[in-house]
Design a protein that fits this description.
Helix content is about 35%, strand content about 15%. With about 300 residues, it is of the alpha/beta class.
Length: about 300
């Protein structure tokens, strides 16, 4: 077992533990199980240093890309803390992805983090009861939001991983409302893997086509929020590649302004004189603003 694994050119996953006690039932990397060190603890530091020395200094390392780096065992073993301390001292570029509250323990190390990278807190729903069944070993959504806000107030770069996006479980509007407006929220649809097109969660069957269709509908509703980023859905073998994102949508016109815009268009085509059109448009806008019925 290696500590570092390649993701793509210039990007690596660093995995201090090779199983995850959080046991999220939708896990696309399928690493649910009893957490244990990815290499023997007596050689962990030496292997970490050897593997870091083997990759370019400018490459991006994602701590926890495949398996959460802060399982309950980390409170006793401190392997992830050793990793962070080592990489901060080396000036490495790295992100952290976690559902755990233990990351707060390492704020003292991260205070010296010179790169503008992020700690991503994963929360796919604000429903505590639902996530107790979907993420049975992980902290509640409320606890994770508290971690996100604490890190944000400490001045550290943070992001919210709202993935997987699951129909009727992920409340997009509620996630946006509970997240600081300066913090980016990343959405990505539920992944099924190469060997299936359906998945049962909370006694309900989900199909790939339904998930993608409803995900894109939510993107149309909320994709104009500037702090949201939406992964472009794609089929296996590279399912929902996070390197490809949907464009930010333009802000929708407020309801009254949309009516005014349509009224201006109608008047412009009906009236020959530009002066007449401008005067009539002004009167029409006044009627819309006051709620009066035009004579």
């Amino acid at each position: 077992m290696e500590i570092l694994h390649p993701i793509c050119h210039g990007m690596w996953s660093l995995t201090p533990y090779d199983k995850c006690d959080f046991r999220c039932v939708y896990c696309c990397t399928r690493v649910q199980g009893t957490s244990r060190p990815s290499v023997p603890t007596d050689t962990f530091v030496a292997q970490l240093q050897q593997q870091l020395d083997a990759i370019p200094a400018d490459d991006l390392i994602i701590v926890g890309a495949f398996c959460d780096p802060y399982p309950p065992l980390e409170e006793q073993m401190g392997l992830t803390r050793t990793v962070i301390d080592t990489m901060v001292k080396q000036g490495r570029k790295f992100d952290i992805v976690t559902k755990a509250t233990t990351v707060l323990r390492d704020v003292d190390l991260l205070a010296d983090w010179k790169h503008e990278r992020k700690i991503y807190i994963s929360i796919c729903s604000v429903d505590d009861a639902a996530l107790r069944r979907l993420d049975p070993g992980a902290p509640s959504p409320s606890e994770r939001f508290e971690v996100l806000w604490t890190l944000h107030r400490a001045g550290l770069g943070v992001g919210l991983n709202a993935l997987p996006w699951i129909p009727d479980i992920t409340d997009t509007a509620a996630l946006i409302e509970r997240t600081p407006p300066e913090v980016e929220i990343t959405f990505a649809p539920l992944q099924f893997g190469n060997d299936r097109d359906h998945m049962t969660l909370l006694s309900r069957s989900y199909g790939r086509d339904e998930v993608v269709t409803r995900y894109l509908a939510d993107y149309q509703r909320y994709g104009h929020h500037r702090n949201t980023s939406w992964v472009k859905p794609s089929p296996p073998p590279v399912e929902n590649d996070p390197l490809y994102r949907l464009p930010v949508l333009p802000r929708p016109w407020p309801r009254g302004l949309r009516r005014a815009q349509r009224a201006l268009g109608v008047l412009a085509t009906q009236l020959r004189s530009p002066r007449q059109a401008l005067s009539a448009a002004g009167r029409r806008l006044e009627h819309i603003a006051t709620g009066e019925t035009p004579q």
